[in-house]
What we know:
- The protein is 92% helix and 0% strand.
- It has 3 helices and no strands.
- The radius of gyration is 20 Å and the shape is elongated.
- It starts with 5 loop residues before the first helix and ends with a helix.
- 22% of the residues are buried.
- The mean pLDDT is 90.
Amino acid sequence: MTLNIETPALLFSATSLILLAYTNRFLTIASIIRNLKKRYDEEHNKSILLEIKNLNLRLTLIRYMQLFGVLCLFLSVFAMLLLFLEQQLFSIYLFGLSLLSLLISLGISFWEISISVTALRLHLSDLAEDQD
């Protein structure tokens, strides 16, 4: 199997967009946590505290998503460097690790999204109960 220098470069645009999306998620959730913290300080409502804990878990997952996304980008660049230095075999392994890092990042993203959907369904169930 041979690897061209353009192949690892294909991950740059995709990984950059994914990292941007992860950062936007992180900033949005951090803002929500700050607002909920203010509300909790005023009301000491247990449901607000549970929501903050849920959001904190999501922040942790996003941090790992970002970590593996950056690792994917780093390994792709390193694979390109090895290709430039004509180290074909090592570059293939590094590119494989880069793809694995991207898969892990996307898998954690799926986990974070499913937590988000579960929390939203909980909020919607409260609305359904209010209508009855």
